[in-house]
Amino acid sequence: MAEVKKWVVEDINRTAPNLAAIKRFSTDDCAGLRFENFLQEYQVDLILHAISKIGIEYYEGDDKAGGVVRKGKLGPNFFRFKSDHSEYFRRARIFEKVFEERILRLVNFFPRVQEVASKTFSLGHGVAEHQDRRMMNFTVRVLPEAPIHRDWMPGENTGLSFAPRVSEQFAWNIYLKTPKAGGQTRIYKEQDPAQAAKGSNYIDVAPRVGDLIIFRSTQAHSVLPSDGERLTLSGFFGITSEKLLFWA
Predict the structure, then answer these.
(1) What's the helix, strand, coil split of the chain in %, to 5?
(2) Dmax (CA) of the chain
(3) The whole model's pTM is what?
(4) DSSP secondary structure code for residue 102 in this structure
(5) Residues in Cβ contact with 231 at an 8 Å cutoff, skipping those fewer than 6 apart
(6) What's the number of CA atoms in the CB half-sphere (13 Å) around residue 13?
(7) Using an 8 Å Cβ cutoff, are 139 and 173 in contact?
(8) CA distance 75 to 94
C-alpha cells in the first residue's frame, strides 16, 4: 500500500534554508512554506507604528462563501472593487504612494518577498498590470476569521487582462500582530471548498509575528476565529510562462 504523504507547512530558516522543502512545495508536495523571522522585531514595530499613523479602514465585505463579514484594510484589494475597476485603480495610485513613503521607506520588505518567490520557482518577477495600469502590490489586512474558500483570479470573471496567463496562484502573508488565541490558517489538501468541509486532510498554521507564509490559494483554506487582532501584510502572486506576477 502506497504511503500517504503528510500534508505539512515546511519551516524555512534564514540561516540554513531547507532546499528540499522548497522543492517539495514548488511541485505541490507540501501545503506551504513558513519563512521564520522574515521580519525582525524592530522592523515589525516600525511598520506597526506607520500603520497606526495612517489608520485602518473597516467595512462590511463579501467572505467568498455567501456571507458578509467586517474586514479591515489599508490599501485596496481587487476583490472588493472587482465591479468597479476605476475605483480600484484610483485607490491603488493613492496607496501606492502612501506605502512607498510611509512604510517601504522604513522597511522595504516587498522586494524580499518577490525574491523569495522567484528563487522558489526559478522565475523572474513583476507587479501585474491591467491595460498598462499597475495592480496594488500588497495590502495591510485585519482578518479575524474567514470561512472555507479558495482564491483563483482566472476563475473569478474579473476582466483583468493578465488573469488568463496565470497558471497557478499563491497567497502570502507576513504576520504583524497575532491574536491571544485562534487565527490559524487552515490549508486543505482538497481544492473544492465543499469537499474540504466534509473533513478533508488539512494543516493548521499558527500565526507567529514576523513570519512569512506562502501557500497555494487554489487549495481550499480558511482562517479560524481569532481572540484578538490578527494583522498581516498580504497579497497574491501567480505563475505565468514568463515570470511571477504580484497583485492584491
Answers:
(1) 25, 35, 40
(2) 58
(3) 0.93
(4) I
(5) 48, 51, 140, 141, 142, 175, 176, 177
(6) 2
(7) no
(8) 8
Per-residue model confidence as pLDDT tens digits over 155-183 = 888 899 999 999 999 999 999 999 999 99
Domain membership of residue 161 (yes or no) is yes
142 to 69, 153, 228, 237: CA distances (angstroms): 11, 21, 10, 20
112: in domain: yes
Summarised one tens digit per residue, pLDDT across range 37-85 is 999 999 999 999 999 999 999 998 887 777 888 899 999 999 999 999 9
Please indicate, yes or no, if residue 26 is contained in any of the structural domains.
Answer: no
At how many degrees (to 10) do helices 19-26 and 110-121 cross?
A: 80
Instruction: Report the amino acid identity of residue 210.
Output: G
CA pair distance 206, 217, nearest whole angstrom = 17
Q: CATH number of the domain at 183, please.
A: 2.60.120.620
Domain residues for the domain of 39 are 31-247
Q: Which residues contact 62 (CB under 8 A, 6 or more apart)?
A: 68, 79, 80
Backbone angles phi, psi at 68, to 5 degrees: -125, 130
CA distance 238 to 100: 23
Q: Are strands 146-149 and 221-223 parallel, antiparallel or unpaired?
A: antiparallel
Give the amino acid at 10: E
Residue 133 within any structural domain of the chain: yes
* C-alpha torsion 20→22→28→30, nearest 10: 80
